[in-house]
Amino acid sequence: MKVFVFACLVAIAIAAPAAKPDFDSSEEIIIPQPYQFSHQVADDDSTNYQSRVETQDEDGVVSGQYSFVGPNGIRYTTTYTADAVNGFQAHTDEEQTDIKIVFPERYDSDEFDN
């Protein structure tokens, strides 16, 4: 009889509906946090030139710009915005520079063996 009562209690526990959460977990609530950052690299020795600036406002609109000098000496500058209405929008400009990119010399691994 004890086994029968125990089996009934286990069956009731398994058949009981799961507790419902107090919120709808499928709805994601995102509260935009304004921010801004930037960085810039200008290294004449390695001819590494790049920069980036980005901001997000209290409405969640992200805007920014990044640029770099390619191996052909052209500076590529991309300006972008992203928001909930228009999505991600970007535009890239190219500007010829007089920068001559220095490529590192290739070293054979045998030169570093002792």
Automatic annotation (TrEMBL):
GO-annotated cellular components: chitin-based extracellular matrix
GO molecular function annotation: structural constituent of chitin-based larval cuticle
One Pfam family hit: Chitin_bind_4
Domain of life: Eukaryota
Signal peptide interval: 1-15
Keywords per UniProt: Cuticle, Signal
Keyword Signal appears in the UniProt entry: yes
Protein name, as recorded: Cuticle protein
UniProt organism field: Meganyctiphanes norvegica
